[in-house]
Structure formats: C-alpha cells, structure tokens
Amino acid sequence: MILNLFFPKKCLQCGVVGVYICDSCLKKVSPGRLVQNHYSIFKYEGVIRKAILALKYKYATDIVHELSKICATKLKRQKIIKSKSITLVPIPLHKKREKQRGFNQVGLIGKEISKQMNWKYMPDLLVRSKPTTPQASLKGSARQTNLTGAFKFNPKHTKNTTHNILLFDDVYTTGSTLKEALKVLREEGYKNIKTLAIAR
Ligand SMILES: [Zn+2]
Fold first, then answer.
1. Which end of the chain is more exposed for a tag (fewer CB within 10 A), N or C?
2. What is the pLDDT of residues 74-126, one digit of tens each?
3. 11 alpha carbon – ligand 1 mean position (Å)
4. How would you classify the pairing of strands 34-35 and 38-42?
C-alpha cells in the first residue's frame, strides 16, 4: 500500500514493526467505563490515545482497520451493547471542517465498527448545523455554550423513534458533545439511545 511509504507501519507507541497497535502496548491500556447509558471502551492513554490522534491528522486506512477490529472484539464481550438491531450514529463534523480535513475520522471508524458488529450505520441522522470551536480548546461552561444548537435532526430521514440508537464519538472528555447530540434525538422522540466512545 502506497501510504506505507510515508507512514511505515510501526507500533505508534513502542515502534515495533508490522502493526500500528501492538498487542503488548494494547495490554497496557486500562479498560474504559460503563456508566448508565454510556460505554467507553478504553481509557484515553497509551497506544489507543496515539491511534486516535494519528487518525485525526493523517489518513491511514490501516489504523482505522486495526482500531475498529480491536473495538469490535471488546464490544462483543459487552452485554449492554449486545443488541441485534443497533443503529450507530457518528457525531458529525461540520461540512467546512470535514472539507478542510477531507474526512470525518469518527465516521470512518464508526462505519468499520458497524460492519464488524453487524449494526446499521447511519452517518447523517444528525447534521452539524453550526461550526464550533474544537472542544479541547475550551473550558467548563464554554464547552456547553459552544455546542448548544450544534446538531440538528436531518429532515431527509423518517423518524423511527423505536430504533436502538448508539451515538458514537472517538473521545469522551466531559461528555458534552455526546450529551448534546443525545438531547437533540430525545427531543425528536427517540427513546432508546446509548452512547459509545473509543476512549475516555
Ligand atoms: Zn507497541
């Protein structure tokens, strides 16, 4: 693969050749948390943190593939997520930012996870209605204000409010992004919504 010329495949944490996420580095990452309706697969640290960051800044399909496989393996063991009729909805990027970056990494990995889990994937059930400042650069209440009104239900979809929705983001920091998206779907009448992040 041509990308390997530019990003030789090495563990993002220890440098061992052959994979981006090696088993021994993966074992050092602590498991995430299951809190009510939210599940984070990992703690945001070590090789998982490096993989999520790498996805944001360089497009490497191999990283998406490795990371989604690892996530799916963990998810299959997690009872709360075990439902046959899940629809995964990734947190959308604003069109302008998606255009700048060329892709939405949350969508890419969400799509792969859905495929491996046999879930439905609905990338545009929600749309980002205003560009927001990256959450990481804001503190406390500014994060919430920044996100208010950020998402809208996409009117091109028919409302199927009985669907089991799994809202998906890469990182759970304060949870405000997922909570805001969840609020929008609740207001539309959706009843069964859980949230999922790769890491917290
Ligand atoms: Zn390693």
1. N
2. 999 887 666 678 999 999 987 777 777 777 889 999 999 999 999 999 999 99
3. 5
4. antiparallel
Q: Is the dihedral of CA 138, 177, 97, 118 positive or negative?
A: positive
Q: How far apart are CA 54 and CA 57, in angstroms?
A: 5
Number of domains in the chain: 1
pLDDT tens column, 16-62: 999 999 999 999 999 998 888 999 999 999 999 999 999 887 667 88
Q: Please state, for a pLDDT cut of 90, what percent of the chain lies above it.
A: 60
Question: What distance in angstroms lies between residue 86's CA and the mean position of ligand 1's atoms?
Answer: 32
Q: How far away, in angstroms, is 77 Cα from ligand 1 center? A: 23
CATH of the domain at 39: 3.40.50
**Residue 56: closest CA among 189, 170, 191:** 170
Q: How far, in Å, is the centroid of ligand 1 from the Cα of 71?
A: 17
Residues 102, 104, 110, 113: is their CA dihedral positive or negative? positive
Cα of 70 vs centre of ligand 1, distance in Å, is: 14
The alpha-helical segments, DSSP class H, found in the chain are 3-6, 23-27, 46-57, 61-76, 95-101, 105-117, 140-147, 176-187
Query: What is the DSSP pairing of strand 164-171 with strand 86-90?
Result: parallel
Strand partners, 102: none
Which residue range forms the structural domain that includes residue 89?
3-199
Please tell me the number of Cα atoms within 13 Å of 155 on its side-chain side.
1
